[in-house]
Amino acid sequence: MRRYSKVNSASNSSVLDRFEDSKSTLIPYRLFLVYLISFFLHLPSRLSFLGTIRFDFLLVLLISFYIIGSKSIKPNKLDPASKYLFFIFVYAIVTLPLVEWPGSVIREGLIAFIKGAIFYFFTVNLVVNERRLKAVVFVFVICNLIRVVEPLFMHLTTGYLGSETYLGMGEFAGRLSGAPSDVINPNGLAFVIATIFPFLHYVFSPLNSISKSMYLAISIALIYTMVLTLSRSGALALLIIAFGVFLKSNRKGLLTIIGLAGIAIIYSNLDPIEKDRYLSIVSDDARQSATAEGRIDGWFRDFRVAMNRPIVGHGLGTSREASWNVAGEDKVSHILWAEIWQEIGIIGLALFLLYLRAMVRNFLSAGQLIKRKLPKDDFLYRANEAMQVWLLMNLLFSLASYGLKSYEWYFFGGLSVVLLKMANKKVLSDERGGVEVTSQLEIASKKFPLLKRLKEYK
User: Fold this and answer.
1) If DSSP states are collapsed to H, E and C, what string results for 157-223?
2) Number of Cβ atoms within 10 Å of the Cβ of 275
3) Dihedral sign computed on CA atoms, order 208, 213, 219, 225
4) Residues with Cβ < 8 Å from 425, sequence gap 6 or more?
5) For 219-239, what is the mean pLDDT?
6) Residue 297: C-alpha distances to residues 64, 302, 412 (Å)
């Protein structure tokens, strides 16, 4: 009886500590959810008074203030991903005297990097239990789904497209981009669509028959929207996601049949411009193959720009400036690795690769633990599958997109840390054989010392 009391006491203490951690970060966590909604839906652009008061900036200040002042944030040893992210930031500051345009780094680069990196900082410190993880994933998916549905609805009702591409011989074709209040171009909208798919497939569709039907309907709308973007990189991203789902599935034969049938149906419903656009990925005879070849030529141009200052780079946030001054092209490198090399040099690129390695290890470690110990219908199991497929897609998508200062690498880096922590906690709790008592009882013990004494007496 005494032995049980000691174990139970330790377990109770653990639950109470986690409850206190959750309670002390409840306000900043709720503000973080508001920030996610505001960030993805661009509320300050939609509501002018929010833009006037710098709503997003105020939220970041408040959340940071609460986190720093929270008693639950202890000076523990940083995990590897946090270390490398911190090293990148420090490196960008230390190398200011050595880069080409330090003024641009201070004025734009550092600020843009911080805007992206705070997703890691907030996620790691505020998503402290599974319930919060579910809420964050839900808000993330719903907000990005709205970003896709809004321009699609505008297109169906008003003919809105928002962008265009040059076909050659003086002709242009419309491409669907984000809504007027959004800031994403057609390729960006395609990336949002590709980001949503793994979560719809793994996290939401398995819930019940209604969610499966909704998933099918939403998938049709998303694929139609993807076609309207005329994004070749987006189409490749969907193929990568399909390949990731295929690798993880036990029904590979059925998926192959469905996939081939789906491609045939989609292709047969494309108009001539859309067919030519997507054929240009693999065919040199397509009318728009010249733009695809131009993307490949851009790789060599980006390499030449990076080699102008290969060691420390031109400065954080200066890829566009460097491309203009070195190669005469007024655009950011559309290859993540070239963008990083151009901006923070080979040293910074090595640090970013180490950060990515830590993130990948977190996902793999969480996946191994979850698959051994948790059932397939568990939320952590499904979330892990979605995030791993997303990671595969984004790693390959990085060959056709920039993103050193974008939110996704840091948000998902934070989610990798959270997922691993949640998996360890859940598996440890299950292995204790239900020794842990419910949070409600522990809260009662905290509030009423007499109840706690009675439990110890037992």
Assistant:
1) HHCCCEEEEEEECCEEEEEECCCCCCCCCHHHHHHHHHHHHHHHHHHHCCCCHHHHHHHHHHHHHHH
2) 14
3) negative
4) none
5) 90
6) 43, 9, 31
48-88 pLDDT, tens digit each: 899 899 999 999 999 999 888 776 555 556 788 899 999 99
pLDDT value for 140: 97
pLDDT of residue 410: 95
- Domain-wise residue ranges, the chain: 80-457
Task: Give me the percent of the chain exceeding a pLDDT of 70.
Answer: 83
Task: For Cα atoms 85, 87, 90, give the angle at the middle one, nearest 5 degrees.
Answer: 115
pTM: 0.84
Confidence category of residue 430, pLDDT binned at 50, 70, 90:
low
Residue 285: Cβ-neighbour burial (10 angstroms; 0-12, 13-18, 19+): exposed
Tokens of 394: 């984004």
CB 196 within 8 A of CB 141: yes
CA-only gyration radius of the chain, Å? 24
Spatial distance between the Cα atoms of 28 and 317, rounded to a whole number of angstroms = 29
Q: Which two tokens stand for residue 340?
A: 């990083």
Return the structure tokens found at 319.
């890829």
